[in-house]
């Protein structure tokens, strides 16, 4: 009989907070080109694991959004 391995809830929570570009696009409902523009020109915080492996911490993104998000009223 195989015994189940308990997964650390801390590790699971940390993994859920780290997004790759595809997951961030889904979260922000935008495309990769816009995410790269937000990172390069608007200072979207990220973690570069390698040149091609970029990750985004969800709390950092949420904080950044709260400082940069503006609601535009449409008449």
Question: How would you describe this protein?
Answer:
The protein has a domain at 19-68. The chain has helices at residues 9-17, 21-28, 32-42, 58-68; strands at residues 18-19, 47-48, 54-57. The N and C termini lie far apart (66 Å). A 3-stranded antiparallel β-sheet has the order 1-3-2. It has 4 helices and 3 strands.
Offer a few descriptive terms.
4 helices, elongated, 52% helix, 75 residues, 3 strands
Detail the topology: elements first, then pairings.
Elements: H1 9-17, E1 18-19, H2 21-28, H3 32-42, E2 47-48, E3 54-57, H4 58-68
Antiparallel strand pairs: 1-3, 2-3
State the low-pLDDT regions, or none. none
| Helical run tally | 4
Give the C-alpha Rg: 16 Å
Mean pLDDT: 85
Query: Secondary-structure element sequence?
Result: HEHHEEH
Q: Strand order within the widest sheet?
A: 1-3-2
Q: What's this, in brief?
A:
The chain has 75 residues and is mainly α. It has helices at 9-17, 21-28, 32-42, 58-68; strands spanning 18-19, 47-48, 54-57. It starts with 8 loop residues before the first helix and ends in a 7-residue tail after the last helix.
């Amino acid at each position: 009989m195989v015994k189940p391995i308990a997964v650390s809830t801390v590790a699971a929570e940390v993994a859920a907070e780290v997004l790759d570009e595809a997951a961030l696009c889904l979260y922000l409902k935008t495309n990769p080109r816009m995410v790269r523009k937000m990172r390069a020109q608007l200072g979207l915080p990220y973690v570069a694991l390698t040149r091609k492996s970029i990750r985004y911490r969800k709390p950092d993104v949420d904080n950044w959004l709260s400082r940069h998000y503006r609601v535009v009223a449409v008449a």
